Amino acid sequence: MIDAEIALNRRDTVRLRWLHACVGAELRLVDVSDVVYFQSDCKYTLVVTAEQELPIRMPIQALVERLDPDTFCQIHRATIVNLREIARLRRKGNGTLEVTLKRHQCKLVVSATFAPRFHQM
User: Among candidates 80, 81, 54, 68, which has minimal Cα distance to 16?
Assistant: First the structure.
């Protein structure tokens, strides 16, 4: 009974559609579907789109809980990537995976903890 209740609560989670980022005196709205990846740095998380990088005050774990798991995947303790933005995965010589993105120059490393998620792809 408890397992069914937990599963129901996870399905009923309200998914994020918009993020609010303060830049100086401005409040900018970012559509979550435009996000390429999120990168955490201490108390801020950087929201990276193809056009801009904006800091928000939301920890990675809170984002993981609120983002659609069919679209976003945590690849490192400090990084969440939009699966639709992955151009390719490359296995490096040391066995780690590297993500190349479609709309951003940055290459992201998949940590060993999260690598098994990509073995089935």
Answer: 68
